[in-house]
Amino acid sequence: METAVPGLRERKKLALRARLSDTATAMFAEHGYDNVRVSDIALACGVTPKTLYSYFPTKESLLFERGDALALVLSEDRASDIGLLDAVLDAIRREIDQLATTSPTATSGDDLIRGIRGFVSLVAATPALRAVVAERSEALTTSAAEALSRRNGLPPTHPENQVAAGALISLWRIHLTGLLEHGRTSSNLTELRRRTMADVDRGAALVRPVVEQVSTARRTENVAVTS
Q1: Disulfide check for 47: which of 51, 90, 123, 196 has CB 3.0–4.6 Å away?
Q2: Contact 179, 195 (CB under 8 A)
């Protein structure tokens, strides 16, 4: 089955979306997140605020798109054939592999690494953005607990599902931390990718027994109820 190639209209929409996000990131880094209005970003990109909001519903969403692929995996239950942990790892690996295409304005791996470093500094200096990171992580953990619940029949709030969900999403946090930490010291994009994925793989080796144990939680629970 052939992969559909985006048409001209779709490519233009994707290019504008990237330009809006890149422009916002640069303006936030230069002037401070709280000092830049959405209308300022729209003006800099030559569009109306209404157009900007059609691409990004909130100011913070201009910065935070990472996690969308993982959220889709968890909500659409795409992991049923290969297992939830491996689906999460695939989503993280795709995000890391696509680093070179996430910012069309970057002309080299060095540009991307500088962008990552700037993003780290921006988030660290902005309480509102740190809160967004925490909220997105919490939302992903809830989605993971619900995905586990669909597999083992236990409520999402059941201890087994809560612990396993936290373990799964810890891999996502490891991936983000790796990009941020290794982005400060990696000499090129290839090294950044390799070091970040190595961290994720080490975390996955610890998480896998937890997730596999939760797959037996339903049987254990049923035995306890019927005995």
Answers
A1: 51
A2: no
The residue assigned the tokens 């690996």 is 93
**To which residue do tokens 């010291």 refer?**
185
**In Å, how far are 13, 51, 95, 101 from 10, measured between CA atoms?**
5, 15, 21, 16
Contact present, 92 and 69 (Cβ < 8 Å)? no
For residue 99, give the amino acid letter: L
What do you get for the CA distance between the two ends of the chain, in Å? 51
SS3 state at 102: coil
Nearest to 46, CA basis, from 26, 21, 64, 20: 20
Report H helices in 46-158.
Answer: 49-55, 68-76, 84-97, 109-124, 127-152
The pLDDT tens digits of the residues spanning 38-85 come to 999 999 999 999 999 999 998 988 887 656 778 888 887 655 556 889
Contact call for residues 38 and 53 (beta carbons, < 8 A): yes
The rounded distance, in Å, linking the Cα atoms of 216 and 191 is 38
User: Rounded distance, CA 143 to CA 138, Å?
Assistant: 9
C-beta of residue 61 within 8 angstroms of C-beta of residue 157: no
Q: What is the pTM of this model?
A: 0.72
For the chain, the average pLDDT equals 81
Classify residue 186 as left (phi > 0), alpha (psi -120 to 50) or beta. Answer: beta
Q: Give the length of the chain.
A: 227
